[in-house]
Amino acid sequence: MKKSLITDTIILTISGFLAKAVGFAIRVYISNKIGSEGMGMFSMVSSIYMLFATIATSGISISVSKLCAEEISKGNTYSARKIVRLSCLVMGLVGLIAFVVLFLSSNFIGITLLKDIRTILSIKLISIGLPFISITSCINGYFFASRNVVKPATSQILEQIVKIISVYLLFLILLPKGLEYGLAAVVLSITIADFFVCIYQFILYKLYKTKIINKSFSLKNTVKKLVSISFPLAINSYLNSGLRLIENLIIPFSLRKFGQTFSQSLSTYGMLKGMVMPILIFPSAFLSSLANILVPAIASAKINNDLVKLNKTISKILQLTLLIGILLVGIFMSFSYDISMILYHNIECGKMLFSLSFICPFLYFDMIIVAILNGLSEQITCLKVNLIEALIRIAIIFFIIPIIGINGFLFAIGLSSIFSAILYLRKLISITNIKFDFINYILKPILSASVVLLSTRFLYKTLTITTIYPSIGLIIGIVISCVIYLILIILLGCIDKKDFIFLLYTIKKKK
């Protein structure tokens, strides 16, 4: 039986989109309940949590996915399941240690680092979920490697359902007690969801039966391979999360040096990280699903020496990523204020969204190209580029925001994203034979997106439904933009029928 990359991607895209849609709705609901200052507090707590979550997972999902894909491609499912069990045991212990350290250091972090005593309770509550995400990441890696994407797909949906029920009920109990307890309700809902997803994934794994062809397994070789893959990924993740934490701590500090009060800086930071950035990231459901599939698919193709098809696939995926990213620049620039007013009733969010819209192609391009490079065992390259990118951004944030305010962050993320995209692409071209067609991948899509930007706004203003039913009008406007853009890129020859056929049937694998 054969499964194509696109089939797996469609499954994950649908589930990922549903999960992201529900998650985004939850975030909008939360932001309207606790405000921009509360979202600022939540973003800072999340930064701490992400650092410890990185320690608790240590790149194990990609490592398990890659090793299991190699073993499954050889018909050795016994070894693949042994790898999962070993990983769950080790990473469960690592997650437990991360929980203890974060829980015990919560007072220091809340008072000294975040400088807000109201965050201490939330740090303690969110730390409880760390052992659960450690185990879940191992099991997820196995499911992606075995191309059984339905199971992690359903767990995504379950996670969001548990979150929305939990946060709604907890808000009824805790929010009347103040912002500190409102924030505690948010993070406790995350911990509850982590617990349920872990139990659900473990049950699915135990029920998932595979045919055992042989029972060859080498503990020494497996540990060696896991360490060789996980170590650079872990160091990369540690540095990346650590530098992101520094960045997130510096932004409110720099805003205060610019002249804002503590509350104002927290609100601005909350709008940026908790309200605007999620809008920009939300459309990446398709690409994040594709990124999850790419690592085992590329690892298997590399082992099978199917390089011609692999290079063609990589080229088309990069093109698709840029086409989507450039389209979204046009959409966000056209509807930034409408989106912000409908979701948050906040004009300042619209200004930020308009200014940050240009980073979409770079955000999505980096996401995909990093997945490709990980599949090609280029973790060290990703580590170096991430480190350089983060240092550039931190330097700009520290020195420029105190002078020009939040626009300094826009400059920082724009410059660092462009820089990293160029370095990643340069490395990918040097190790593969991919063709990067600048005219069809970038120039023509930009021209098409410009037409969309100019024409859609004119058409949008003529629709009376936009004033009567703003939400419906916005959806209609976005759909019109997508249709115009698709027609233009087809007419300009960016894509043709062969591209659709190739993407529908690419990288078919035997199971």
Which key features would you list for this structure?
mainly alpha, single chain, globular, two-stranded antiparallel sheet
Low-confidence stretches: 504-511
Structural class: mainly alpha
Mean pLDDT: 81
Quick one: overall form?
globular
Radius of gyration: 23 Å
Termini separation: 6 Å
Order of adjacent strands in the largest pleated sheet = 1-2
Measured as a percent range, the helix fraction is: over 70%
Biggest sheet features: 2 strands, antiparallel
Please characterize this protein's 3D structure:
This protein is mostly helical and 511 residues long. 85% of the residues lie in helices and 1% in strands. It has 20 helices and two strands. A two-stranded antiparallel sheet has the order 1-2. Helix 9 packs parallel to helix 15. The longest helix has 53 residues, at 5-57. The chain is globular.
What's this, in brief?
The protein is mainly alpha-helical and 511 residues long.
Give a topology summary.
Elements: E1 2-3, H1 5-57, H2 60-73, H3 77-104, H4 106-113, H5 120-127, H6 130-145, H7 150-174, H8 179-207, H9 219-258, H10 262-281, H11 285-303, H12 307-344, H13 347-356, H14 360-375, H15 379-404, H16 407-431, H17 438-462, H18 465-468, H19 470-491, H20 497-505, E2 509-510
Antiparallel strand pairs: 1-2
